[in-house]
Amino acid sequence: MRRKQWGTLLLGVLSLAADCFAAGIQYLDRRYVYGDPPEGIAEMVHFFAPYGLFAAGVAVLVVLLLLVFRQK
Question: Where do the TM regions start and end (predicted)?
Fold first, then answer.
């Protein structure tokens, strides 16, 4: 792998880690500060859907950038 590919991969992993951290903080905030945790599978899916969509977008962009930066 070249330097650009490693940089892209590192940025993608850090972005996904930040997304997971934000989702966890939002969940803990809603649970312990407001006392209203998501109950049931449907509400959990609805709560975490924006974070999942962002993670999917990051994964797609990282794969596309890795393909663009591949060695020929």
Answer: 46-69
